[in-house]
Amino acid sequence: MSALLDKKEGAEHLLMGNEAIARGALEAGVKVAAGYPGTPSSEIIESLAGVAKDANIYVEWSVNEKLAMEVAAAASFAELRSLCVMKQNGVNVASDFLLHLAGSGTRGGMVLVPCDDPGALSSINEGESRFFARTVEIPLLEPGDFQEAKDMTKWAFELSEELKQLIMLRSVTRLSHASGNVRFGTLPTGEAKARFRCDGFILDPDEGIVISAPVDYKHGQQHEKLKRAKEIFEDSPFNTYEGPEKPELLIITSSACTLYSREAISILGLKERVGLLKLGTTWPLPPKLLTRYLSLAEKILIVEEVLPFLEENVKVIAAETASEIGIKKFYGKNDGTIPMVGELNPDYVINAITKILEIEYLPRPEEYAAKTQGLAFFGAPQRELIFCPGCPHRASFWSIHNALELDGRKGFVCGDIGCYTMALLPTGFTTLKTVHAMGSGSGLASGFGKLGQFGLDQPVLAVCGDSTFFHTAIPALINARHHKSDFTLVVLDNSGTAMTGFQPHPGLEVNAMGDNVPDLDIAEICRSMGARVEIRDPFELEETRATLNNLMEDNEGLKVLILRQICGLSPEKKAGKKYEMAINEEICLGENCGCNRVCTRIFRCPGLVWDKEKQVTRLDEVICTGCGVCADICPAGAITRKEAV
């Protein structure tokens, strides 16, 4: 049985931050959890899905983040505790319902967990979720370590029920994906029963209808809830101070930056000079607590990721209490002491402290720094972002690129978020020309496809993955079909949400908990709209290319090409190879061939390696998946394939 269901109070386990959040939800008695996969948040739902049957909870990967929040809210309205999980981009998707939910309030405890990605380590942006908490006026919590991730999650449900309000608990990559020891509390034993009471007086929060109107009353209630949250936060055990009674410098921080700040102070040996105020309740800030600690020091450094959210809110309190605490000198992002963009680390905090306190610190000898810098540039092999061996996306974009070149009208492709985003780069033959949000490729193509009356005569294509198709591409297709927009959508159907770990979506026959469920056919959905639909295997290069050229010549509106081939890294495909590949070194002339090494210079599958000594291409049999595509792109016929036994 999973360690997450360990019933022994006080048991200690090594958990990833996301697992700690999942355990906290279990200790709180969560009954419904919904989310949409997105790094760095995915493991929370995956962890809960893995124990759903044993814990008697319901877990789902929803079609998108807005739906996930609505599913979780329904459970809350029925007096069950619920959890909603997403990455930072997902809060934008869910924000329409989020604004209404903040106004209507909740019943059973409900916690929203957005996991932000400072530095955009696995994202196309490092968007902030904290500002949504302030915008829609709901409390915001931020755990500072792995134990707090578990404990604070449990408390968030209790706080939600006390305030009858949604609570946002924000994590970041270094907390979600790092690991630490976590002491367990108890798991609840009672069973909750769902019941939606909606026949009472309209303004009754427990038995009336659930709605954010009337605004004058409900908005006032939100402010009362925030006022009560401030009072609770004043005595929260998740706000802690460590350091001298009168520090020369006070650091105010939260989340993973707590760990960076604590390490910086320790490395510099400044525990007797620098105070550290760690805040776990970051919106609304507890004014009395802040006033007490702001009065201790003249210099204040605020360390946070990514934007100066905490800094700005602390300064408001400092301005309002200036007559009491005096004038302070603030350091942080606004003055450039801390970088305004990107992920932080202890070095950034060390640099800030030494600058403010005017002390010298040499982290490493200059000769060592020079040597390591030289090795970084000249000693380490360069590695670019590329599609995996056997990735169907490489074959798809090979055909798309060649079809556009053959067409000759300077057609272009609109893309969005997924593994295929890398088609901006040489690994996808620089095919994508726009990349924004999930589904935006189809939406932009719908717009481009109506510009013929203004002289646009370039073929318009869009690409999206199968999970993205269900997430946000369907409305764009409906819009395009209704307005007779002329473009071709290429659905890269690799049978799962591959970028985040092969989570299921509505096109598959299995759900998050492993149950058999009805699958929705992408082709039939598109045909039901009246679109022309073709289905091809992207590994069949010539057939795919010819189909694309035929579709681009058809200017009668919406066309959809589904390129269906399972991901080369999926659990189903790892077991074996379709083809045994071989390279005839006598035929391969390398740079002396008329192709000028098209296999390793242009196609660049990692399974093909250029042997500089022999001046031939060789096969890396360890990583080759046996897809067979490279045999079709070799003009000399040096690469061969045969059916695997």
Describe it for me?
The protein is an alpha/beta fold. It is built from 22 helices and 25 strands. The chain folds into four domains: 3-234, Rossmann fold; 240-357, Rossmann fold (3-Layer(aba) Sandwich); 392-564, Thiamin diphosphate (ThDP)-binding fold, Pyr/PP domains (Rossmann fold), CATH 3.40.50; 579-643, Alpha-Beta Plaits (2-Layer Sandwich), CATH 3.30.70. Helix 1 packs parallel to helix 7 (146-163) and helix 4 packs parallel to helix 5. The chain is globular, with a radius of gyration of 28 Å.
How are the elements arranged and paired?
Layout: E1 12-16, H1 17-27, E2 32-35, H2 42-50, H3 52-55, E3 58-61, H4 65-77, E4 82-87, H5 88-104, E5 110-116, H6 130-136, E6 140-141, H7 146-163, E7 167-169, E8 171-172, H8 173-176, E9 179-183, H9 215-234, E10 240-242, E11 249-253, H10 257-268, E12 274-278, E13 281-283, H11 287-294, E14 299-303, H12 309-320, H13 322-325, E15 329-331, H14 346-357, H15 366-379, H16 392-407, E16 412-415, E17 432-435, H17 440-448, E18 460-465, H18 466-482, E19 487-493, H19 522-528, E20 532-536, H20 541-553, E21 558-564, E22 579-583, H21 598-603, E23 608-611, E24 616-619, H22 629-633, E25 639-643
Parallel strand pairs: 2-3, 2-4, 4-5, 5-7, 5-8, 6-7, 11-12, 11-14, 14-15, 16-17, 16-18, 18-19, 19-21, 20-21
Antiparallel strand pairs: 1-9, 6-13, 10-12, 22-25, 23-24
CATH architecture of the largest domain: 3-Layer(aba) Sandwich
What is the CATH domain class of the largest domain?
Alpha Beta
Q: Tell me the fraction of residues in β-strands, as a range.
A: 15-25%
Total count of helical runs of at least 4 residues:
22
Largest sheet: 8 strands, mixed
This entry's quaternary arrangement is: single chain
C-alpha end-to-end distance:
38 Å
Give the fraction of residues assigned to helices.
25-40%
- Helix-strand makeup class: alpha/beta
Question: Could you name the CATH homologous superfamily of the largest domain?
Answer: Thiamin diphosphate (ThDP)-binding fold, Pyr/PP domains
What is the count of structural domains? Answer: 4
- Annotated CATH topology of the largest domain: Rossmann fold
Ranges with pLDDT <50 over ≥5 residues? Answer: none
State the shape: globular
